[in-house]
Amino acid sequence: MNTLDLLRADRVLTVVRAPEISDARDLCAALVAGGIHVVELTYTTPDLPRHLERAAATASETGAVVGAGTVQTGDQATQAINAGAQFLVTPGQGPEAGAIAEAARSAGVPAVLGAFTPSEVMTALALGSAAVKIFPAHQLGPKYFKDLNGPFPGVPLIPSGGVNAGNARDFLDAGALAVSAGTDVVAPAEVAAGNWQSITDKAKAFCAAIAQ
């Protein structure tokens, strides 16, 4: 099952922003145990390629699909792919958005480019984005996704930023493909400390909230 199909099934991915990841394999295992299979490790974590390599090398054990987030340059895109990233996510569309999309296309992995306005959604699609991340989603809320579905019917949109167990279902009901679960599930301190059971419990709670 490819990344987008898995997102259609799970309706959620986790975005990890932490000062340290004690063990990427155990983090992925904890999230999968809680029902979340798509994991985005970001360049805001130091030494990201090492964590990607660890997660990719143990993916057959954990069942996780791991990608790289906060990708801002073509070099970062290539580095992440070489480390085993199965998808790339950008926070927006900087001057190297095209290079990132091309690196993903060449490697056969999906790119999810960030956008906020309709014009940016159009640009992301023109660059070949497999889905479009809307960030920061909480600024305009679920109704904005209903509005975007007017000119962009069927376009896979993923809200990120300020999404939590309390509002995630509303984004899905408004037409989002899946939602990004952040600190609501993977609090930076718990990731750094390796509090895996707590992360599993929070992942389960989040998945239960979107299943209602």
Automatic annotation (TrEMBL):
Membrane-crossing segments per the record: none
Protein name as catalogued: Bifunctional 4-hydroxy-2-oxoglutarate aldolase/2-dehydro-3-deoxy-phosphogluconate aldolase
UniProt keyword Lyase present: yes
Sorted UniProt keywords: Carbohydrate metabolism, Lyase
Domain of life: Bacteria
Family listed: Belongs to the KHG/KDPG aldolase family.
UniProt pathway annotation: Carbohydrate acid metabolism
Annotated Pfam families: Aldolase
NCBIfam families for this protein: eda
Known partners and oligomeric status: Homotrimer.
